[in-house]
Design a protein that fits this description.
mainly beta; 125 residues; 6% helix; 6-stranded antiparallel sheet; RmlC_Cupin_sf; RmlC-like_jellyroll; 9 strands; Cupin domain-containing protein
Amino acid sequence: MPKLETRRVEVKNFQRPDETRMFEGKGRAEVITLAGQQVGCGTFEPGWRWSNNVKPIAGTELCEFSHLSYCLSGRIRILMSDGTQEEIGPGDVAAIPPGHDAEVVGDEACVLLDFGEFGDYAKRT
């Protein structure tokens, strides 16, 4: 586990994120930095799909970031490059390796907390 870069308690709130990244009209990621680590709260609207809404930002065929996520609400399907799929819903914790697409399932927004490689995810260069 990475050692946190802090000597004091840090508290932040997603109501006032350090940064907001938009997903081509279908959601957003609020990002906060604590102890040198970035944490994201992604809101993925119904109809969101990584290959449609983040691929133009990332410039890669698939998402090449790993994610360590906790689902607060909604559902999302992860589609791996090897053809396997997994669906994530409220209360699920998931480790998602690089090399995937993803899509919201149903008509409710999916909200995920992400403690993985979130530093440059959906970040415009």
